[in-house]
Predict the structure.
Amino acid sequence: MTSNSEEPKKPGVGQIFLEELNNQFKPPKKDDKKKGVASQTLLIPLLAVITGLIIGGIFIILTTEQVYAAFGQSFGAGLAAAWDAVSKAYSGLFTGAFGDPARMIAALQSGDSLQIRRAFNPILESLVTSTPYIFAGLAVALGFRAGVFNIGAEGQIFIGAITATFVGYSVTGLPGIIHVPLALLAGAAGGAMWGFIPGWLKAKTGGHEVINTIMMNYIAFRLSDFLLTGPMKRPGSFNPVSPEILPSAWLPRFFPDPIRFHLGFFIALGIAYLVYWYLFKTTWGFELRTVGTNPNAAKYAGMNVTKNIVLAMSLSGALAGLAGANEVLGVNRNLAMAFSSGYGFDSIALALLGNNHPLGVVLASLLFGTLRSGATRMQLTAGIPNDIISILQAVILAFIAAPAIIRTIYRLRKPTVEEAGVTIRGWGG
Amino acid sequence: MTPVLELRGITKRFPGVLANDHIDLTLEQGTIHALLGENGAGKTTLMNILYGLYKPDEGEIFVNGEPFQVRSPSDAIARGIGMVHQHFMLIPVFTVTENVMLGEESLKPGGFLDRETAAKRIREISIQYGLEVNPDSYIKDLPVGVQQRVEIIKLLYRNANILIFDEPTAVLTPQEADELFEIMRSLTAQGKSIIFITHKLREVLEVADIITVIRRGKVIGSVLPSEADQSKLASMMVGREVKLELEKEPARPKETILKVENLIVTDETHQVAVDGVSFEVREGEILGIAGVQGNGQTELVEAVTGMRDVEDGKVFLIGKEVTHAVPRKFTEAGTAHIPEDRQRDGLVLPFPVMENLMLCTYYQPPFAKGAIIQWEYVMQNATRLVQEYDIRTPSIFTAAGSLSGGNQQKVIVARELSRPIHLLVAAQPTRGLDVGSIEYIHSQILKRRDEGVAVLLVSTELDEIMQLSDRIAVMYRGKITATVSAEEATKELIGLLMAGVPLEEARLQIHKQTTQSETIGGAN
């Protein structure tokens, strides 16, 4: 399987793509016609991340006892200790996320395959952590594009994991080439069903999807608890855990243990491209985006608004379901209680950080995946609690959600329409 | 004599825009000074500066020769400057007296409202200036024209000497507008001074003592009405020659395209908005629907384009019944629809111009092959339409929302008129647009008519109806009360019909007026 051919790199795509990235989801206010330009679309998330790291650093300093002790001795010693704490934490985060470069080189030179695997494991582990984020982030982003707020990704992940697990252990005698896609499809179908219900309720009764998806989450959690302690409980086990998924349904891993890097990552990239293609290359996607941006105009243009809302919620659910299936088939190989550590909730943040664009979501997911996987290492080496990563993520998101703060801190001016126009005309000569 | 108000070198910059560029304006006592300019010319900004809502970057204001620092509307009111806003600031469930007193309450001992004294003053004011109104009526029961009088009384009650009228005729019938002009003259006759903001040429010539034209934030010049005519003012406003009179050949109507029978449509609150309306529109003619806003025109248009379901009655399009059809069915049968609210229905503002230009037929070839959008063609199409319809946009990738109102409307017009059509439903096609865009859109509508398209034109602008229509139907309280030919239609007649006067009676009144004026003319 080659992933490169599926990357959005084809000629002709670029122009539209950039425009999409710039224009979508920034409805101009009537009294305030100022809007962002291309550079700021990318600049603001970047600055948000940098600012997040700085504020994270402050928290690291504030929570390290040695720093207080050092400041008690002298101001200089305090500063040195503060710097020491932050640099230790962030270098731990870096090596945890990407691996230790020196060790990688040494391993490559030694030529020992076990050494190499161990040296490169951190970066591959980051990709493993990023994978469910990509699926779930795409799910929420697709919903946002259609104007629906799918808070139910977490529940849809659980249902997708349940259905994928069930197909994974109960269907026997299939070759991997059939069993894996079947289990993935089952996961997508389960999630789709869990998204369809609130979508249908919204379209038919006007019930708000935010409320209904939250309720669906609770149903999903308790349903999974019930299944794992009852019908799907592993025979003979004392723990609430499902039977082992059959090896024929496992997502293939590329390296021997302990490296868990598996096919799911490339499937996620492929799905991201599919979502991009769907949204920006097809009439279906055009309808979905129109319905999401201006339902009145969609109706005027002859589009079926309710159909598109139900469809978007179902597709969104399917993507979230894939996140769940990916985890059980690729990483856990069984279903345990509370197996998802809030991927579905983080994904709302990912969609926002990625500007609801598939490429943006992939990049945001890689960032979050690396932070999460690096945090564990940071805790080990620097003794910094990995909760600091939650603070970091929260700060980044706060800034993404309120770009005005970033503009104020870095004195970015809101570019006006007229200026943007002049620039474009200027290029034309 | 010292002018009551003088603005010197007022400059106001917004990021990237020079809204007011060294504007000088002098208002003499007892005159009506018209401020004429297109939308976005800077009239409203200037008045907001005078009213204390914006702070000018440069320039000074003098009232009665004294420098005047205005920080808030209350400063302005204290110095006798008052503004009649386009949208009234009245509380519907209060009486006239209560509304006038609001913020300026006179009290009886013990802190009770002294309505009697206030009502007495209101009566005095209304007699003095000819502002007929009953102080005890509730605002919600009063027609729009009378509500406007209450707004004026509010200002006079606070002893305003300088009155600013911001587009005051936009909400009035022609008769009500004439009454307003009478009131304005009586105000100036008694020493009040008026700034009259408008973009309507006819009105300034009728009522103003001096006209100052503003274009792109600059004063282009001041003229006396006696020295100006409509085309001169229009070219000053726009900055080029403008054809005001459309060259229009007589219509040659052929087959019936749209036929509506006993149509009943309800609004959002399930009230009957269109009440048993019947009419037909034929190939090559323009049927204009006149009426004061809110008499069922919006619902009518939505019903004959599939946007709103019909309660009862029938709609036929080229002989086929389409009564409960969805919008797409109308589009595919050859209907073009310029919607009343372009930003709500007609455009997806954050989408680029090129996507808005394919909004109704995006799923048909050559825009799409199967479900795959042909972006090459979409771009070609957009480039061609932008050129052909003179849409001023930095590029076809620019969000429609960042274009000016006129160019947004041109995007809709280009999209709707660039495909083969049999019926054009145009609702308020030029609302809020500048003279240049109006001229262009009118010429496009006429061109389609001459090509054999049936046109249903709905507008509250009487001038527009009169200029374009071959037949005029007047809507009043959900019913079409009369249909008259373009030859018979005069401003007075349509105005009376718009106010609900039955056709026979309206004809009689107009006949009387003309004979009366002839007799008077003869006696003199």
In short: The interface with chain A takes residues 15-17, 307, 326-328, 331, 337, 339, 343-352, 355, 359-360, 362-363, 368, 371-373, 375-376, 394-395, 397-399, 401-402 of chain B (CB under 8 Å). Residues 503-523 of chain B form the longest helix (21 residues). Residues 12 and 56 of chain B are 5 Å apart (CA to CA). The radius of gyration of chain B is 25 Å.
